[in-house]
Amino acid sequence: MEESAQVKVNSGAAEQLPGRLLSRGFFEVSPEEVAPRLLGKVLAHAVDGEVLAGRIVEVEAYLGPHHQPPDPAAHSYRGATPRNQVLFGPAGHAYVYSIYGRYFCMNISCEVEGRAGCVLLRALEPVAGVEQMARNRGLPPYGRRPVPSPQRVKITRWGPRVRGDPGLAAGAVARELTSGPSRLCQAMGLTRAAHNGCDLVDPASLLQVRDDGYSVGEVLVTPRIGIHEAIDWPLRFAQRGNECVSGARNQRE
DNA sequence: AGGCCGATCCTCT
DNA sequence: GAGGATCGGCCTA
pLDDT by residue (tens digit) across A36-76? Predict the structure, then answer.
């Protein structure tokens, strides 16, 4: 076992989290099944006495090497390595890896222990801790970046807020906070060092996936983004029409 | 020991 | 729409 971040709740932070924790069994099946069911669930991170949370609106499934045919785009394709070993462990754990030297992406492990497979989180709709997310992303009014203005759509529709959450920071836009696999990690404050291996269905965990009863409407199914193998497999799932889904061009069927 | 490259993001044209 | 940043991990020799 290499590093396995087990950050535990030491305050009453977990009690503030919306909804209920998912069960391990939810994740102990094929990523193809888990991915669409994950839409609408809430990723919640208790950090520095505050809760950052976002509703999952876009995901991709990556299949384990036991699958026929095997998925050449998956990190688990060539078997377990120090980097990807979380994928071969028990379901419901965070697999956080670094990419391009500067970013992180977060997946959730699926299948029973011994079998790999995961769901990549590609976009969230901010639900709580939005001002801190803006700071984490270096966006106005906290950052210095001048505000250019490609199509900025203010989010007007919010999910349940955590008590005391001030809402979206003026100048920042929900899309820019969590619309993209690395953007959402940055906004949520997720890193490989701190969160790889974190158990997302442990009530004592600082990082959890929860169900607050929200149900997504129509689900958009498309090929996965940014890969070079198995480019036409329909394993990307998104909430149709949600402004926080990444890339306007990616909204097509 | 060295080379290659990525499940990305941002900026500029 | 294209290219650069930037580095850990994995593969080959």
Answer: 999 999 999 999 999 999 999 999 999 999 999 999 999 99
Give me the count of residues in chain A: 253
Q: Please state whether strand C lies within 7 Å of residue A250 at its CB atom.
A: no
This prediction's pTM: 0.88
Structure tokens at A65: 């090497």
Q: Distance, angstroms, CA A92 to C1' C13?
A: 39
**Residue–nucleotide distance: A215 CA to C11 C1' (Å):** 44
The secondary structure element, H or E, covering residue A108 is strand A103-109
Q: CA(A110)–C1'(C11) in Å?
A: 27
Q: A5 and A204 in contact (C-beta within 8 Å)?
A: no
Is A105:A190 a contact under the CB 8 Å cutoff?
A: no
